[in-house]
Amino acid sequence: MATFGNLSDRLSETFKNLRTKGKLSPADVDSTVREIRRALLDADVALEVVKEFTGKVRERALGDEVNRALNPAQQVVQIVNEELVQILGGQQRRLEFAKRPPTIIMLAGLQGAGKTTLAGKLAKWLAKDNHTPLLVAADLQRPNAVNQLQVVGGQAGVAVYAPEPGNGVGNPVKVAKDSIKFAVDKQYDTVIIDTAGRLGVDADMMKQAADIRRATNPDEVLFVIDAMIGQDAVATARAFQEGVDFTGVVLTKLDGDARGGAALSVASVTGRPIIFASTGETLDDFEAFHPDRMASRILDLGDILSLIEQAQSAFDEEEARKVAEKFATDSFTLDDFLKQMQQLRNVGSIKKMMGMLPGAGGLKQQLENFDEREIVRTEAIIQSMTPAERTNPKLLNGSRRLRIARGSGMTVTDVNSLVQRFEQAAKMMKTVAKGGVPNVPGMGPIPGAGFGGGRGKQQAKKKSGSRSGNPAKRAAENAARAAGEKPAVTAGTSGGAGFGLGSKGPNGSANPSPEELEALQRFLR
Q1: Mean pLDDT, all residues of the chain
Q2: What is the pLDDT of residues 33-51, one digit of tens each?
Q3: Using 50, 70 and 90 to split pLDDT, how confident is the model at 278?
Q4: What is the Cα–Cα distance from 344 to 336, expressed in whole angstroms?
Q5: How far is residue 499's CA from residue 488's CA, in Å, rounded to a whole number?
């Protein structure tokens, strides 16, 4: 969500100032609406959309629903969220499939908007849902457009209909029309037609797109628009609506760093819903558009539902059950750890997932510094181990760790750190699996999370032990208690020497007792 990053930061700062007020006056509301207006205009949201949006927010913010609310500031945030959902299209709109296959989907838009790559993303997305899509190369003007679609189709694992070489050769209307008959004969249930674009709106492009639409009678015409296009987004969308009359919008390049707010205006200005969003360069960076979830992301309220859906699509429930059983039986190995890492990588970008958490905007710097390649390094270290070493990390002596470090291109310190993290994770998860309270490294047990009378017993046990700060003396006193004897009382005080050396022993001498020496040796070992 880099495209809306600046807008999100500005709105979050505005609401942060608003939350410090217990009661809102008309002046507070006007000031907040004014900041929202500036943030939207700076983000390139169309002026007419900004006026309508801020007008509704101000009217509702000055109404009874805020004045009577227990938390007026939170109520204003809710109003902004609801109005933002409306300018994004209101409710989610899904693709409409033909009652009798094939379903015909035509893509239209300017050159450079990412139509060809999007065609592959859409085809792969449909294939995951058990559809059989066919890509059609009807862009015969742009150099190597046909070849690019064939490459994208191969990456997506779907068929491509390309009877013409392109590069100015062939009739795109005839190709699009013939593709329908080809799809029926070969039993493809979805046809995705990639059409030509131009660097700007012109009559020839519009005529060709309109001719393809009349020849194929598509069920969906998707207008593909670059989220970084700026204020031209509204004018371009209106031109395509008049020339082709699209049924839905697809936003591309939402991972860019431009202001991108003009893309928010398209649904409101044209009255056509945003159906899909392209969020990255790979074919898997593609998702159905949910206006309510997008509004929550922009306002830094998180998008937990999308996060859960991504996790469910990547994680195997049966595998998760087996891992849980291994945790409980203390049989979790580095091989299992490796599988978990690989599943986590299959979910997608860790940064994007963390960005879906509420309040992630405040962790922007940490997210930027997060290195996605850490998982790859972890895999390299584990894969450099032998099966026996993965099963039993206790075999990893110094020479083995050196060999693993060299084999993975890492250092011995990296190997040691991985083994330590693995042991801590396994120990914590084993405790959780058995219903216990895990010790968080550096924090100790989770406060107030004791079960039953366990906490009292732990405290009683702690009180019954030696409280000496001297390790040797503490060990000797605890050993005496365990033997049923009364611990000897040290005469005098320690002069600050390490391990009690130099202080008086139980017999009043300055030398340590045999028990203290034995305890000290055990401690040093």
Answers
A1: 76
A2: 888 888 888 887 888 888 9
A3: confident
A4: 12
A5: 16
> What pLDDT score was predicted for residue 159?
95
Phi and psi for 284 in degrees, rounded to 5? -90, -10
Residues 453/454/456/460 CA torsion (nearest 10 deg) = 130
Distances, alpha carbon 219 to alpha carbons 15, 102, 182, 213, 436, in Å? 43, 9, 17, 10, 56
Q: Which two tokens stand for residue 73?
A: 């500031």
pLDDT in tens, 213-265: 999 999 999 999 887 776 777 888 888 888 888 999 998 887 755 556 766 78
Torsion of CA 379, 384, 390, 396, to 10 degrees: -120
Both tokens of 115, joined, read: 């139509």
Mapped onto helix, strand or coil, the DSSP state of residue 252 is strand
Q: Report whether pLDDT(476) > 80.
A: no
Nearest to 88 by CA among 297, 273, 278: 273
**How far is Cα 411 from Cα 401, in angstroms, rounded to an integer?**
9
Element (H, E) at 124: helix 115-128
Give the bridge partners for 369, in sequence order: none
- As a whole number of angstroms, the distance between CA 101 and CA 107 comes to 18
Q: In 3-state terms, the chain is what percent helix, strand and coil (to 5)? A: 55, 10, 35
Ranges 54-68, 264-278, 385-399, most confident:
385-399
Is the pTM for the entire model greater than 0.85?
A: no
Name which of 254, 364, 376 is nearest 300 in CA terms: 364
Backbone phi, psi, residue 425, to 5°: -65, -45
Decide: 110 and 200 in contact? Cβ < 8 Å: yes
Q: How far apart are CA 257 and CA 227, in angstroms?
A: 10
pLDDT-derived band at 182 (thresholds 50, 70, 90) equals very high
441-to-70, 90, 205, 430 alpha-carbon distances in Å:
40, 45, 62, 15
Q: What is the dihedral of CA 43, 45, 47, 51, to 10 degrees?
A: -100
Residue 384 to residue 390: CA distance in whole angstroms? 10
Percent of the chain with pLDDT over 90: 24
Query: Rounded to an integer, what is the distance from CA 205 to the centroid of its chain?
Result: 38
Q: How far apart are CA 128 and CA 483, in angstroms?
A: 68
